Structure formats: C-alpha cells, structure tokens
Amino acid sequence: MPGDADSAVPFFRNAKLFRAYQAVRGFFRNPDVLRNTYQLCLCALIAGVAYLALSNAAENLSRAKIATGFGFWNVTAGFDISETLIAYSPQTSTYGRAFWVGLLNTLLVSALGIIFATILGFLVGIGRLSRNWLVARLAGFYVETIRNVPLLLQLLFWYNAVLKALPELRDSHVLFGGVFLSNRGLYLPKPIFEPNFWLVPVAFAFSVVASVAIGVFAKRRQERTGQRLPVIAMTIVLVVGLPLLAFAAAGFPLAFDYPHMDRFNIRGGMERLPEFMALLFALAIYTAAFIAEAVRAGILAVAKGQTEAAYALGLRPSPTLRLVIIPQAMRVIIPPLTNQYLNLTKNSSLAVAIGYPDLVQIFTGTVLNQTGQAVEIVVLTMAVYLAISLVTSLAMNWYNARIALTER
Amino acid sequence: MTGITGWLRANLFSSLSNSVLTVLIVIALVLLIPPLMRFLLIDAVWSGADRDACLASDARPEVGACWAFVRERLAFFIYGSYPIDQRWRVDLFFVMLAIGAAWLLWLEAPRRDLAAAYLFIVVPIASFVLLYGWPAIGLAQVDTALWGGVLVTIVVASIGIVASLPLGIVLALGRRSSMPAIKVLSIAFIEFVRGVPLITVLFMASVMLPLFVPDSWSPDKLMRALVAVAIFSAAYMAEVVRAGLQAIPRGQYEAARALGLSYWPMMRLVVLPQALKATVPNIVNSYVALFKDTTLVFVVGIFDFLKTIDVAGVDPKWATPVTSATGYAFAAIFYLVFCYSMSRYAKDVERRLDVGARE
Hints:
Chain A is α+β, with helices and mostly antiparallel strands. In chain A, 65% of the residues lie in helices and 6% in strands.
C-alpha cells in the first residue's frame, strides 16, 4: 500500500484482512477512543473493587452478627459523658444525642482554639519581624521549637506535666472574680440568663448588619466624593453600645452563680475539666506557631517600596500599616490561615489521647465499641469532618477568586 | 554610638515600648531558664540501676531529670521488643535507609536516578525481608507486634513517603488530566483524604479494612496502619507535586509536544524531572510532618517511639515523680533534633534552588 511503513503486506494474504487490521489499529490509535477506553477501564476497575469489598463486608458482618443501618441512632446510650454543652443523661439519652454532644464539644474546643491561636499567632508573627533583637529571636525560637515537636507530645506535656501538677481541690488557686484553679479543673462563675436576655443577641446581630451597611455606604461615598467617614469608630460604638443599651433596657437580665468552697467540694459555678484546657492550650500554641509563619510570609511579601512610597506621601507608620501593608498582606495570609484553622479542627481529634469527650472519642471510641457497627460510624465521623473542610474550602476559594490579582 | 552600646541602643532599647519589652523578657528568661537548666542538667541523675537512684533523699533533696532511666532503657526505646540477637537486622535497615536518603538528597551526587530506584524499590523489598524475616534464607520471622520505638517510627514514616510519592505523582497528574472521569476521581480522592483527620483514617484502616478483605487475608495491625499512612500521605504529596507541576512553564509542555513526545514520555523525560527537583524542599517538609504524625498510630495499638516512652514510664522499677517528665523531655529532644535538622536541610535546598534558578 502506498505510504505504508511497516512490512505487514506480505504477512496478510488477503488485502481485505489487511485493511480490516489497519482500521482496527487506527481505531485504537484515535485519541478520543483511547481517552474513553482509559476512563471506562478505570471506572470498571473501581466499580469492581468496590463491589468485591462491599460483598466481603456484608459477608463478614453477617457472620459476626453485627447489625447494619442506622438503627443504633435511637438506642439508649447507657454511658456517661464527662463534659456536655447540652443536656445529656446516661439513662435516657440515645447514641444520636451522644453524637451531638461530641460534635458540640469538638466545635467548642476548635472555635476557642482558633480564636486564641489567631491572636497569639499574629503577635508572634509580627514580633518575629520586630526591630527589637530579643523579641525577634524569642519569637523565632518559639516557632522553631513548637513546629518541630509533635502535637501529641505537647498535649501529653500540658496534660501530665502542667495540669496534673496543679494543687488539690482544697488548696485551689483563687484568681480574681471568683475563679478557682485546681487539678480537678477550672471553676468559673456561671452566667444565668433571665427570660428577657434574647434582646441582647438580637441587638448585636442588628448592630453587625448596620456596621456592614455603613461600611459599604462609606466606601461608595469615598469613591464618589473622596471624603472618609470614621467607620471603625462608628462600628465599635454600634457593636458595643447597642447590645449594652438593649441589656439596660431589658432590666439587666444577667445573674452570676459564683463558685464557693464547701466542706469537701466546690459548689456552684461551671466547671471546665483539665482535659479541655490541656487540649485548648496545646492546640492554640501549636497552631499559633504555624499561623505566625504564615503572617510573617504575608508581611514580607508586601514589597518594601510600598512602605517607602507611603512614607514619601507623608503617611505616618500607623496609617501606613493599616491602609497599605495589612490589606496587601492579607491576600497572602488568608489562604494558609484558613488551612491552619482546618488543621486545628482536625487536630482536635487528638482528644482520644487524654479522654476529652469530643466527636472522635465518643463516637468512634465508645459508641463503636458498644455497637460494633464500624462502617456506619467511621463513615459518619469522616462525613462530619469532610463537611467542615469542604465548607471552609469553598468559602476560601470564593474569597480568593474575589481578591485574586487578575493577570493577562 | 558604636560598638556594643550602639548595638544595644539600636536593637534593644530603641524606643520606650521596646525598652519595656526588653526588660520584661529578660525578667521572664531569668525566671524560666535556671529552673529548666537545673532540671535538665544540674540536678539530673546520670547513672543508676533503678528508682532509688532518682528518688529524693536527704543527701539529694532536689532531683532533676532521671537520665539513668533513659540510658538503661535506650535499647527498648530504639528497637522495642525486637529479639536482642536479631537486632543487627534493624541496624542494617537503618544504614541502608540512611545511605539511600543521603544519596538521593545530595543534589550533586552522581546517578541520582539509580538512587531513586534504590530507595523506592530495592530498600522497601530488602527491608521487608530483613525486618519481617524470611525463614527460607535463614532469617527468623519476627512478628510485627514485637516491633517498637524508633524502628516503628522510621518504618511508618519512610514507608509513608516511599509509597506516597508514586501514588501522589499519579494523583497529581490525574488531577491535571483532561479526561473528566480521571480528573473527578483524583479530585474526589485528594479532597476526601485531606478533609479528614489522620486518626479517622487510621480508624478506618484498622477497623474497616478487615471487613473489606476476605477472611483469609487478615492484615496485621502494622500493615493496616501503613496502608492508612500511605493513603493519607499520598493525598498531601499530590498537592505538593501539583504545585511543582504548576511551576513548569507551559512552553516546556509545548516544546515536548512539538518534538513528538506523547504523554508518558513527555512526563517522564521533560516535566517530572523538573517538577520533582523543584519540590524536594516541600517533600522533605512533608517527611517532617509525617514523622511527627507517626505518633498518632497509638490509637490502633502500635508502639511507636512516643508510646514506647509512655509505656516505659509506668514501669514500677523506675517509678519516681520525675520519670515520665524525663521520658517526655528525651522524646522532645529527639524529635526536635531530627525534625529541625531535616527542615533546615529543606530550607538550604530551597535557597540553593532559588539561587540556581535566578542565574
């Protein structure tokens, strides 16, 4: 055949057979055919492996007489949980209720950890760039040490070496405001909300909405006329003043139950267990080191020419930092910052090491041991963490797309 | 003002707030450092046979760290319960791994492609035979339940990296693929594994894996943990490799195509060598993170280095108030030294690569 490079012609006695061979070979060299074939093969392989795995699982589960499905959700739990944010009783609460208790505990320690870690991380990150040699070196030492020791080791250190070394209940440290600190935990005054208290959160929400509206309005006005409104001052007045006004108008509906030392025990107040505090300290301090690095990278990423140009325009250092440096640095800081928030939330699962009743400890620990339904429980736990991660990633991607520098 | 006074004035006391900070920090250091030094060095007990050496007595009212405990149990910390007469196999494994790592990571070494083949193919097979045993050639079988300490930590971390790098490359390439099925599957796998904590992946592997495989296979505990760590690490490695792939200019892909290279030869000869060289610092950082994450295998009952120290600390032979603190201090020093030197190496490589790229 003309243009045929290989010597297959003499091999095929029949010209039609050779044409058929060429057609088949051409078909399988067609890129579209190849792509679809690869994808089909991959999907078939995965489907086959999944089918095998599931049939094995069904067989093994039925052999071990373990139930399937989510019927266990409404079964009475029968075990106690040491720290709960919502009402829970071992006699009447179900496994489903235990799930919510664990989830709330996880969210509580993660939220508080994120707040403390951010504050500490920003301080250390900015401190590492300080002109004070001692502050810079100390911040650097903190970051390098904390980042290179495993989180579990730090958690065990806080739990065993620090919190268990606190004095006994009878010799508790008494801090200001009626706070008792001992190796049994931290006793704080418990706020008691009277019926009219709902006005305060409503006022707070309203003030937040109003501040956002004022900010948008002030920006538009500045772009139109060049005049600036004191937005920050107005925001602070609104966010602090409005709820306070509502508080006073409702008749000060807040009372405190102070803890006091009884004969053998402390009565009143609310108790925070040492497990909670150890986990909080360890998570906050560990994540703060990583946040400090992200903040430092962000501030260093802003070109020095920006500072010099701002000074040349007559801006003093404080407005320069606020108006020129920080907004540009935030673009570089926010993505790794949200990554660290996610890491902190996932690292809160280390509560299994010290017995703090978070989601993993309660659900994949106790409930899994009692019901034996490993597949449903592990899948549900992973689904919860996955939901938190995906929501945060989506929000971050939206924010990134909004502030991304558009290049050609 | 020049000299020391000038330096002090400029760096420590340049303004009122700086001066106040300096004074506060010096006070804090004076309050914290001497007790720490006393505990670690001055009051420490360096030799002894059992707990009596580390208990407070009239002759020595202040007892610091009980390093005698660490010295006596050092072999347990390194090898776990590995049979004493077979410990040469573990030593040989450490040496083989060190040679492979040094050969591959030293950027000016000759034939680094051979080093990659050695580290990723020869070492895993040889170390499996060495550590687990192969009765046919005379190596007695050692059950994985006996492994512990630094051996387990290094095995888990190294298998994690060695297994996750090929898988991560495949996932990264799949994520950038133009075939929708492969792209969706890769993204789903990566985002799923990155969105869950390592502890749940370990639980999944140790509790669900025996359910999904036929009864006759019954993977042992260490194998399940290795599978979990490899999967977890592969997802993060995929992101690292993807960053490296994105750094390659599009012209490289176009030139390779113009030369007539199809997909896999283009990846093998043009793209991946450049991408992997650029991501060596990030891969080392991933190794450091994996090294620290090996401490989490305690949830599935495996004795890594930290768990070994924990367990040794409750030994009644060495029961003193300072034993567990000493153990934790020793663990912290070990991890600090190891992880800090690896991350310094990664920073050095990154700086050298930057300089090289700019020239």
